[in-house]
Design brief:
Number of helices: 20
């Protein structure tokens, strides 16, 4: 009975404590904000230390709101305040303050950011995966910036350069020496993975550095493992760039990509589909079906102003509609296309490339009545490129 009597006041006190702590937090935020506006950084730092050290408020309860309040003033105030927190206290929150200071520096000066994260990773942050991971990234970035400043790009183009899906760091080369080493960047990224194997944030950056160092197989394995855990579109873009010649695997990845980004530009897919058009005879039926679905998807969900998809549809159907059942079965489900894409008015205006491509498709898919304007398009005045395309299709038939 006595235990029950003592229990009720405890619960009632808990309900009173919560508003009290909220009031304390708001007062601390307000006072620190006022101190910093008056450039009283020492007072702001001392107040935060006192609150944290006495346990009145947990760091996690006040840190993000505090940074948001100060950031709303200006980056200079935030930087000075964070420097005080880092240098004047060895208690919490040195990790949070050091990382926040690094992010502030990234907005203005990469060299300062490098100095901050380097010092942190060799001192209190030596066992922190985030410190080593960001150090690896900033080393690679500074190397790339130095190469660009010196206009040094003498090596063979990087595997990702001019890729439809990714732009990566420049490949390692003896003639591309800077004070920032890709090997050093990779060492810190690897250390981040060792310190926290579950931290996947750095995997895309780590893979870029590995590819630049010539370790593409290892990078591919790392990315595939990451993508299996989480369907991340950035990781998928990288995988699509690594081995574009593998058209079978690429078809699977492209369909995955369309699920993640239904409105992706068709330029992402043009290079791949062009490669496929040159090797239809070597592709398995399942891959051909996937390629056809990619073209269909771009027509139905892509940007209507983009026209290459109709060119690929014309080439695809001209060559494969009589030999691959998947083509006819898919098109039999799209009778509504006639009214959307192949009605008369679409062929009675200016003869653009898109009109020519659609005219070729209409002639192959639909029994056109005599006098249909499609015939006027295909047999009328065409540019040299348009005429060559139509003649190529006719030769295929």
């Amino acid at each position: 009975m006595n235990k029950q009597v003592r229990a009720f006041p405890v619960e009632r006190d808990d309900r009173r404590v919560m508003p009290h702590l909220r009031d304390i937090r708001l007062k601390v935020l307000s006072d620190i904000d006022a101190y910093i506006r008056q450039r009283e950084y020492g007072k702001a730092s001392a107040l935060l230390q006192t609150i944290v050290n006495t346990g009145s408020i947990q760091v996690k309860e006040i840190w993000n709101p505090l940074i948001a309040v100060i950031r709303a003033q200006d980056h200079t105030s935030l930087g000075v305040f964070l420097d005080l927190i880092i240098t004047e206290t060895r208690t919490q929150p040195p990790f949070a303050a050091s990382m926040e200071r690094f992010f502030v520096a990234l907005d203005s000066n990469y060299d300062d950011a490098y100095a901050i994260i380097l010092a942190f990773s060799t001192d209190t942050g030596s066992k922190l995966a985030m410190a080593h991971g960001f150090l690896g990234i900033i080393i690679a970035c500074l190397r790339e910036l130095e190469l660009r400043r010196n206009n040094v790009f003498t090596a063979t183009p990087h595997v990702f350069r001019n890729s439809e899906f990714a732009q990566f760091v420049t490949s390692a080369d003896e003639e591309q020496r800077t004070k920032y080493s890709l090997t050093n960047a990779e060492r810190h990224l690897e250390q981040a993975l060792e310190l926290d194997p579950e931290c996947d944030f750095f995997v895309p950056f780590h893979a870029q550095v590995l590819v630049a160092l010539g370790r593409t197989d290892f990078a591919t394995h790392m990315l595939e493992r990451r993508y299996a855990k989480d369907k991340n579109i950035v990781v998928l873009r990288m995988l699509m760039s690594l081995d574009p010649q593998d058209v079978v695997e690429q078809s699977n990845r492209m369909l995955d990509y369309l699920e993640l980004d239904p409105f992706a530009p068709e330029t992402y897919f043009n290079g791949y589909i062009t490669r496929c058009t040159g090797q239809w005879d070597q592709l398995p039926e399942e891959t051909i079906s996937r390629v056809f679905l990619i073209i269909i998807d771009r027509i139905e969900r892509g940007d209507p102003r983009e026209t290459d998809k109709w060119k690929y549809m014309a080439l695809f159907t001209a060559r494969l509609r009589t030999t691959h059942p998947c083509v006819c079965s898919v098109m039999d489900q799209r009778l509504h296309w006639w009214h959307m894409y192949f009605d008369w008015p679409q062929f009675m205006g200016t003869v653009t490339d898109a009109v020519v491509y659609k005219a070729v498709c209409a002639q192959q898919w639909v029994d056109l009545e005599p006098g249909h304007p499609v015939y006027n398009v295909l047999n009328g005045e065409l540019t040299d490129d348009q005429a060559a395309f139509v003649n190529n299709i006719r030769a295929t038939d």
